[in-house]
Amino acid sequence: MTTGARVIWGGVVALQLGHAAGEAVRSWAAPRGLRRLLLVHGPGGGPEALIPHLETAGLAVFAFEHPGGPSVAAVAEAVAAYHFDQCDAVVAIGGGAAVDLATLAAFMAGQRHPLPDLAADPSAVDPRGVASCLAVATDPTGLAALGGARVLIDDRGCPFLIRDPLLRPGAAAWCPLSGSDGLCAPVVALALDAGDAEAAERLIAAGPEDVPEIALTVAGLLERRLGPARVFAAFAEVAGELPPGPTLAAVLRSVGGPESTLSFLSRALDPDGTGRAGLDRLPLDGLAHLDPATLPVDISGVLVMLGRDIPARRRRGGRGGAARGRRSE
């Protein structure tokens, strides 16, 4: 281990600190006999310098850039890439979006049922179908994504929640990039949204050395409870291509919280106040399919804030659909 390397054990997954990203990947893959890695990363955060370092160590690395918001389609693309390149493990490098997608791709690598079905029936998950996964978090949002709960948008544009301990990566490392301290603000928002104002305020005041432990606390919190801002930010990112930061700030402003924390989030995440304007134009058709069984989070307060209603579910077309409609009247 390099000088200063240590492990935080008190979170949802043991977190290794003190290694560079390349060394973290190598020291994880080698003893497990893993040789072909799907390397999931975020837009603009390509691992160009990392790949040659890993290839020198005898690893075959296949980079996969996160294609967009948290959708079933994005996960399907990542799983297809995993099998096409005959990978035997998944590695995330980046923030929360990369960690979310990588852990979902690993989770789905060998499943026999689609994600929405597994969300509705967790007993159908096959633990043997989960691939090995390492998460290399480069900013605090990556740490907050280490828990076992994900919000996704299905093929109809409807948000749903899947929660399973197998969504946690098998191992995790903290390899912060220069300037990543400013990315505490989204984690502050998630903590406040999940009902832990104390953790949110601790993150605002935290020094760099305190961030990993507090963010791991938030990861555990988010595994147990997601709030409406988290759900709506995921929905808005896919349905309206809205950035999650301003959406989080706008939604939290509506549902309330400590004024000092809300002011901090507004300045950090939505300095020009565009979050609310984007939400006012957001198409809501996908929300017609909301199912409390797979989305046990009440987002009605957000819709009240927007002055909008969940659209009525459309009847199916054709003779069969018309007949069913008449029978139900």
Automatic annotation (TrEMBL):
* UniProt KW keywords: Oxidoreductase
Going by the entry's taxonomy, the superkingdom of the source organism is recorded as: Bacteria
Does Oxidoreductase count among this protein's keywords?
A: yes
Q: Where is the Alcohol dehydrogenase iron-type/glycerol dehydrogenase GldA domain?
A: 18-170
Short name of any one Pfam family annotated for the protein = Fe-ADH
Q: Which InterPro entries does this one have?
A: ADH_Fe/GldA
A molecular function GO annotation: metal ion binding
What's the name of the protein? Iron-containing alcohol dehydrogenase
Q: Which organism is this entry from?
A: Thalassobaculum litoreum DSM 18839
